[in-house]
Amino acid sequence: MASRWGWIGVLLVMLAAGPGWAHEAARIEQACTELVLDYAYYRDRPEGDRVAELFAVDAELRVMGQTYLGREAIRARLQDAARGPVFRHLMSTVRIFPEGPRRATGVSYVTVYSAAAGPLPRALEQPLAVGEYRDIFVLTEAGWKIQRREFVPVFAATP
Protein backbone atom coordinates (compact mmCIF):
# COMPACT_ATOMS: atom_id res chain seq x y z
CA MET A 1 0.00 0.00 0.00
CA ALA A 2 2.87 2.40 0.80
CA SER A 3 4.31 2.13 -2.71
CA ARG A 4 0.86 2.82 -4.18
CA TRP A 5 0.67 6.08 -2.24
CA GLY A 6 4.25 6.86 -3.29
CA TRP A 7 3.23 6.70 -6.93
CA ILE A 8 0.21 8.89 -6.24
CA GLY A 9 2.55 11.47 -4.69
CA VAL A 10 4.80 11.38 -7.75
CA LEU A 11 1.75 11.76 -9.99
CA LEU A 12 0.59 14.78 -7.98
CA VAL A 13 4.04 16.38 -8.28
CA MET A 14 3.97 15.78 -12.04
CA LEU A 15 0.52 17.31 -12.41
CA ALA A 16 1.44 20.33 -10.30
CA ALA A 17 4.64 20.90 -12.27
CA GLY A 18 2.83 21.16 -15.60
CA PRO A 19 3.79 19.86 -19.03
CA GLY A 20 7.50 20.57 -18.57
CA TRP A 21 7.75 17.94 -15.82
CA ALA A 22 7.91 14.98 -18.22
CA HIS A 23 10.95 16.48 -19.94
CA GLU A 24 12.58 17.35 -16.61
CA ALA A 25 11.86 13.86 -15.21
CA ALA A 26 13.55 12.30 -18.25
CA ARG A 27 16.63 14.48 -17.67
CA ILE A 28 16.70 13.48 -14.00
CA GLU A 29 16.43 9.80 -14.91
CA GLN A 30 19.30 10.12 -17.40
CA ALA A 31 21.57 11.96 -14.96
CA CYS A 32 20.95 9.46 -12.16
CA THR A 33 21.36 6.45 -14.47
CA GLU A 34 24.75 7.84 -15.47
CA LEU A 35 25.73 8.03 -11.78
CA VAL A 36 24.77 4.36 -11.34
CA LEU A 37 26.84 3.28 -14.35
CA ASP A 38 29.77 5.56 -13.53
CA TYR A 39 29.93 4.09 -10.02
CA ALA A 40 30.39 0.58 -11.43
CA TYR A 41 32.93 1.74 -14.01
CA TYR A 42 35.12 3.77 -11.66
CA ARG A 43 34.76 1.28 -8.80
CA ASP A 44 36.12 -1.49 -11.02
CA ARG A 45 39.12 0.53 -12.26
CA PRO A 46 39.50 1.37 -9.18
CA GLU A 47 39.50 5.16 -9.21
CA GLY A 48 38.64 6.23 -5.68
CA ASP A 49 38.69 9.95 -6.46
CA ARG A 50 36.24 9.52 -9.35
CA VAL A 51 33.96 7.28 -7.25
CA ALA A 52 33.94 9.80 -4.40
CA GLU A 53 33.01 12.66 -6.75
CA LEU A 54 29.79 10.83 -7.68
CA PHE A 55 28.57 11.34 -4.10
CA ALA A 56 27.31 14.41 -2.27
CA VAL A 57 29.78 15.83 0.25
CA ASP A 58 27.75 14.46 3.19
CA ALA A 59 26.73 11.20 1.48
CA GLU A 60 26.30 7.78 3.05
CA LEU A 61 27.45 4.47 1.53
CA ARG A 62 26.39 1.15 3.08
CA VAL A 63 28.07 -2.00 1.81
CA MET A 64 28.12 -5.43 3.45
CA GLY A 65 27.39 -4.20 6.96
CA GLN A 66 29.81 -1.26 6.83
CA THR A 67 28.78 2.39 6.62
CA TYR A 68 30.93 5.17 5.18
CA LEU A 69 29.81 8.71 6.00
CA GLY A 70 30.94 11.53 3.76
CA ARG A 71 32.77 11.78 0.48
CA GLU A 72 36.18 11.55 2.15
CA ALA A 73 35.31 8.27 3.90
CA ILE A 74 34.10 6.86 0.58
CA ARG A 75 37.34 7.94 -1.09
CA ALA A 76 39.41 6.38 1.71
CA ARG A 77 37.53 3.09 1.32
CA LEU A 78 39.05 2.71 -2.15
CA GLN A 79 42.48 4.12 -1.33
CA ASP A 80 44.30 0.79 -1.45
CA ALA A 81 41.94 -0.99 -3.85
CA ALA A 82 44.44 -0.95 -6.72
CA ARG A 83 46.52 -3.55 -4.87
CA GLY A 84 43.50 -5.68 -3.95
CA PRO A 85 41.19 -8.05 -5.79
CA VAL A 86 39.90 -7.43 -9.30
CA PHE A 87 36.18 -6.56 -9.32
CA ARG A 88 33.55 -6.25 -12.00
CA HIS A 89 30.13 -4.80 -11.18
CA LEU A 90 27.65 -5.76 -13.92
CA MET A 91 24.69 -3.39 -13.71
CA SER A 92 21.20 -4.15 -15.00
CA THR A 93 17.58 -3.17 -14.39
CA VAL A 94 18.26 0.45 -13.53
CA ARG A 95 15.05 2.19 -12.42
CA ILE A 96 15.04 5.85 -11.40
CA PHE A 97 12.04 7.52 -9.76
CA PRO A 98 12.11 11.35 -9.79
CA GLU A 99 10.33 12.69 -6.72
CA GLY A 100 10.67 16.35 -7.58
CA PRO A 101 13.10 18.74 -9.24
CA ARG A 102 15.87 18.15 -6.66
CA ARG A 103 15.42 14.54 -5.46
CA ALA A 104 15.06 11.06 -6.93
CA THR A 105 15.31 7.48 -5.73
CA GLY A 106 16.48 4.45 -7.62
CA VAL A 107 17.02 0.71 -7.61
CA SER A 108 19.59 -1.05 -9.77
CA TYR A 109 20.53 -4.71 -9.93
CA VAL A 110 24.17 -5.71 -9.73
CA THR A 111 26.12 -8.93 -10.22
CA VAL A 112 29.57 -8.68 -8.63
CA TYR A 113 32.50 -10.83 -9.70
CA SER A 114 35.81 -10.84 -7.83
CA ALA A 115 39.18 -12.52 -8.31
CA ALA A 116 42.58 -12.26 -6.65
CA ALA A 117 44.91 -9.56 -7.92
CA GLY A 118 47.16 -10.59 -10.78
CA PRO A 119 47.55 -10.47 -14.52
CA LEU A 120 44.44 -10.56 -16.68
CA PRO A 121 42.54 -12.55 -17.69
CA ARG A 122 41.67 -14.12 -14.35
CA ALA A 123 39.90 -17.46 -13.93
CA LEU A 124 36.12 -16.99 -14.00
CA GLU A 125 34.31 -18.16 -10.90
CA GLN A 126 30.75 -17.81 -9.67
CA PRO A 127 29.56 -14.31 -8.82
CA LEU A 128 30.60 -13.01 -5.43
CA ALA A 129 27.11 -11.58 -4.96
CA VAL A 130 23.94 -10.63 -6.77
CA GLY A 131 21.92 -7.84 -5.26
CA GLU A 132 20.63 -4.36 -5.70
CA TYR A 133 21.69 -0.85 -4.94
CA ARG A 134 19.03 1.33 -3.36
CA ASP A 135 19.86 4.97 -3.97
CA ILE A 136 18.76 8.46 -3.07
CA PHE A 137 19.93 11.14 -5.50
CA VAL A 138 19.98 14.89 -4.94
CA LEU A 139 20.60 17.90 -7.13
CA THR A 140 23.55 19.86 -5.77
CA GLU A 141 25.37 22.97 -7.00
CA ALA A 142 27.73 20.54 -8.78
CA GLY A 143 24.88 18.62 -10.45
CA TRP A 144 23.16 15.36 -9.55
CA LYS A 145 24.94 13.29 -6.88
CA ILE A 146 24.31 10.16 -4.85
CA GLN A 147 23.15 11.14 -1.35
CA ARG A 148 22.70 7.60 -0.03
CA ARG A 149 23.62 4.24 -1.54
CA GLU A 150 22.96 0.89 0.07
CA PHE A 151 23.92 -2.51 -1.33
CA VAL A 152 21.30 -5.12 -0.46
CA PRO A 153 22.47 -8.68 -1.21
CA VAL A 154 19.89 -11.02 -2.71
CA PHE A 155 22.16 -13.99 -3.49
CA ALA A 156 25.65 -14.60 -2.08
CA ALA A 157 28.34 -17.11 -2.95
CA THR A 158 28.51 -20.07 -0.61
CA PRO A 159 31.86 -20.77 1.02
User: Care to count the β-strands?
Assistant: 6
Distance between the termini: 38 Å
Average pLDDT value?
A: 90
Structural class designation: alpha+beta
Second CATH tier, the architecture: Roll
State the helical fraction.
25-40%
CATH topology, by name, is Nuclear Transport Factor 2, Chain: A
Order of helices and strands: HHHEEHEEEE
Largest sheet: 6 strands, mixed
Number of domains: 1
Shape: globular
- Spatial ordering of strands, largest sheet: 2-1-6-5-4-3
Give unreliable regions as ranges. Answer: none
Q: What does the radius of gyration come to?
A: 17 Å
Tally of helical segments: 4
| CATH class bucket | Alpha Beta
- Multimeric state of these chains? single chain
Sheet-strand content, in percent, reads 35-45%
Descriptive overview:
This protein has a single domain, classed as Nuclear Transport Factor 2, Chain: A (Roll), CATH 3.10.450.50. 34% of the residues lie in helices and 42% in strands. The protein has 4 helices and 6 strands; from the N terminus they run H-H-H-E-E-H-E-E-E-E. The protein has a 6-stranded mixed beta sheet. A hairpin with a 2-residue loop joins strand 1 (55-63) and strand 2 (66-69). The longest helix has 25 residues, at 20-44. It is globular, with a radius of gyration of 17 Å. The mean pLDDT is 90.
